[in-house]
Every structure is written in C-alpha cells, then in structure tokens.
C-alpha cells in the first residue's frame, strides 16, 4: 500500500520512529531506530510495508528497498512473524542472509532470536533459489545507516569489558547490546555512560 514514506523525523524510540508528512505523523517500526538520531528533524525516506491482520495494523520501514524485500520474504515463511522478521533484518545484511540460505548454513540462521533448527530448515526450504540474486551484491553496497552509525569494534568491546568490571552480568549486558551497538559515540567512556543509562532503566 505504501511503497515508501518521506517526511520529517520528529520522534525516535527504541522500537520505532515517527515521520511527519504534511502534519500527519506516521509511526514506523524499523531496525535500530536509535541509529537515526543524527537525522532528527531532517527529512528521512523509509521503504515501508503495511502489515495488516484482523487484530493489528502496523507500518514497518527500512532504509533500503532490499531490506524491505527480505522482510516480506521472511513473512512468507511458516513460523516467521513480523517480530522475528524484523529482528533478522536488524542483525544481518541481505547479502549474508542470501549466502546462508543458498549454502544451507543452519548454524548462521539459528543465531537469530526465535529461530531454531526447524525454522531454519523451513527458511532454506522456502527461500532457496529466491534470494540468490542478493549474493551478487557487494557487501559494501549493502551498508545501511545503522551500520554506518555503529561505534568501532574496539570502543564497543572496551565498553562491554568496563560494564562487566562494574559488576553487571553478561546476561544483563546481552539484553542492551543491540541498542548499545547502534549508538554513536566519540569515546569508550561515552559508550560506557550510554550503557549504564540503558542498564538502569
């Protein structure tokens, strides 16, 4: 129904963003919303998918059209709902996902939340041969705004070590890790502070 929506980014939460289009605010659920912090009050274009069921209507948005296409394909897999599909899109590129499907790499697919061996095999069965074109796409071409916004690995690793030293458990840190990775930070100290704010919520 909506191919894409372009509007002023007026609000950002941990789960969705709000785009204002001529006075109408569209609540759009997307991968790593906090990565759009640098775009606050600017015009942003998201490729959108309108998900409709008897008891729910939601807009999902993606920085690239390929991510939207992956999301749609995942929804056609038995056992995959929008929440699972969004988490998969959040944690992989279409290039890497297509490669895992074509190579029948169960180990890669089962790393996603809510995906066991049975669901991984179902994804391979349903999608093999339908996503292979994405394997020809350069990984560099698939970089999205959330990847560009992530802190460098050294800063992130040092921040995690600091939080562990402060007495937080690995389980507690794992819960905030996806959000922490999405933050832009100029230093490890700043990233640690952001981590502490998340842990204290």
UniProtKB/TrEMBL annotation:
It is found in: Cytoplasm. One of its GO terms (molecular function) is hydrolase activity. SMART domains: HhH1. InterPro entries: DNA_helicase_Holl-junc_RuvA_I, Hlx-hairpin-Hlx_DNA-bd_motif, NA-bd_OB-fold, RuvA, RuvA_2-like, RuvA_C, RuvA_C_sf. Its main location: cytoplasm. The gene is ruvA. Residues 151-201 are annotated as: Domain III. The lineage of its organism: Bacteria, Bacillati, Bacillota, Bacilli, Bacillales. Homotetramer. Forms an RuvA(8)-RuvB(12)-Holliday junction (HJ) complex. HJ DNA is sandwiched between 2 RuvA tetramers; dsDNA enters through RuvA and exits via RuvB. An RuvB hexamer assembles on each DNA strand where it exits the tetramer. Each RuvB hexamer is contacted by two RuvA subunits (via domain III) on 2 adjacent RuvB subunits; this complex drives branch migration. In the full resolvosome a probable DNA-RuvA(4)-RuvB(12)-RuvC(2) complex forms which resolves the HJ. It comes from Alkalibacillus salilacus. Gene3D superfamilies: 5' to 3' exonuclease, C-terminal subdomain (1.10.150.20), DNA helicase RuvA subunit, C-terminal domain (1.10.8.10), Nucleic acid-binding proteins (2.40.50.140). Belongs to the RuvA family. Residues 72-91, 107-126 form the Helix-hairpin-helix DNA-binding motif class domain. Has three domains with a flexible linker between the domains II and III and assumes an 'L' shape. Domain III is highly mobile and contacts RuvB. The RuvA-RuvB-RuvC complex processes Holliday junction (HJ) DNA during genetic recombination and DNA repair, while the RuvA-RuvB complex plays an important role in the rescue of blocked DNA replication forks via replication fork reversal (RFR). RuvA specifically binds to HJ cruciform DNA, conferring on it an open structure. The RuvB hexamer acts as an ATP-dependent pump, pulling dsDNA into and through the RuvAB complex. HJ branch migration allows RuvC to scan DNA until it finds its consensus sequence, where it cleaves and resolves the cruciform DNA. The keyword Iron-sulfur does not apply. This is Holliday junction branch migration complex subunit RuvA.
């Amino acid at each position: 129904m909506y191919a894409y929506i372009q509007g002023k980014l007026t609000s950002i939460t941990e789960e969705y963003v709000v785009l204002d289009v001529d006075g109408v605010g569209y609540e759009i659920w997307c991968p790593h919303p906090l990565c759009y912090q640098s775009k606050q009050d600017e015009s942003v274009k998201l490729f959108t998918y309108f998900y409709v069921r008897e008891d729910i209507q939601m807009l999902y948005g993606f920085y690239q059209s390929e991510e939207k296409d992956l999301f749609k394909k995942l929804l056609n897999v038995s056992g995959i709902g929008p929440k699972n599909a969004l988490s998969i899109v959040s944690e992989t590129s279409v290039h890497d996902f297509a490669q895992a499907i074509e190579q029948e790499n169960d180990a890669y697919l089962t790393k996603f939340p809510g995906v066991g061996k049975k669901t991984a095999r179902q994804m391979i069965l349903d999608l093999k041969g339908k996503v292979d074109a994405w394997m020809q796409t350069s990984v560099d071409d698939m970089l999205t705004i959330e990847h560009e916004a992530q802190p460098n690995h050294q800063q992130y690793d040092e921040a995690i070590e600091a939080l562990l030293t402060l007495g937080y458990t690995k389980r507690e840190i794992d819960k905030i890790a996806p959000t922490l990775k999405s933050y832009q930070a100029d230093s490890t100290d700043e990233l640690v502070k952001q981590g502490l704010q998340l842990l204290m919520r």
